[in-house]
Design a protein that fits this description.
single chain, 203 residues, mainly alpha, 4% strand
Length: 203
């Protein structure tokens, strides 16, 4: 076996290892500062989304936590056929953002990000920002994680019709998203300057 072949193999294996590490959920999901310290590429992605779509990092990250628990390959559970046989999934949601097929298609067409992948954190962060930005033009406050999440789940048309009122469980989830966003916000303002000082954008 040649030295050249060994080098190529080692580089390939290293790449797979790094990719695997990057795809794993953060070790401290309850602390946004520790998440960004560990996942520097996530910090960069979230900052880019904020710059482009004006969604605060703590709101965006509270969405990702709720939707996928920071798991890149998250999917809805399968329904059961005859109560025991795994059957179809409840929806077409996939990835960090749990975006549906049609909504993801709309995002790619509207933004031109045709190669976007729902299992890629950067693309998911941009997607959440894109979707949230549509609410700002309708009077949504960008800090109102609760309302933004309800619209994210029901669609802006559904939110306007207040379809969530018939879903007490969803209202409870939206409340949890707001609570987490507020918690992340308090943490973030304690480390934002330090994160920026470390110039994570160069990683």
């Amino acid at each position: 076996m040649s030295i050249k072949y060994l080098k190529v193999s080692l580089i390939f294996l290293l790449g797979l290892t790094l990719q695997s590490c990057m795809a794993t959920p953060p070790k401290n999901p309850d602390n946004i500062c520790l998440i960004f310290e560990e996942k520097k590429s996530w910090y960069k992605a979230v900052m880019k989304s904020e710059k482009r779509w004006k969604i605060p990092p703590y709101v965006l990250m509270s969405f990702v936590y709720q939707e996928s628990s920071f798991q890149s390959d998250a999917k809805p559970e399968r329904t059961k056929l005859l109560w025991v046989i795994p059957w179809k999934r409840k929806s077409t949601a996939v990835g960090y953002s749990q975006a549906l097929n049609m909504t993801w298609k709309d995002y790619k067409e509207e933004t031109g990000n045709t190669g976007a992948n729902r299992k890629d954190f950067k693309d998911s962060a941009d997607f959440i920002g894109w979707y949230a930005s549509k609410g700002y033009y309708q009077g949504f406050d960008r800090l109102d994680a609760r309302s933004l999440y309800l619209a994210y789940h029901e669609g802006y048309g559904g939110f306007k019709k207040k379809t969530y009122r018939k879903k007490p469980w969803l209202i409870k989830v939206a409340d949890r998203v707001q609570t987490r966003s507020t918690k992340y916000q308090q943490q973030y303002w304690g480390c934002a300057k330090e994160l920026k000082k470390k110039r994570f954008f160069f990683f």
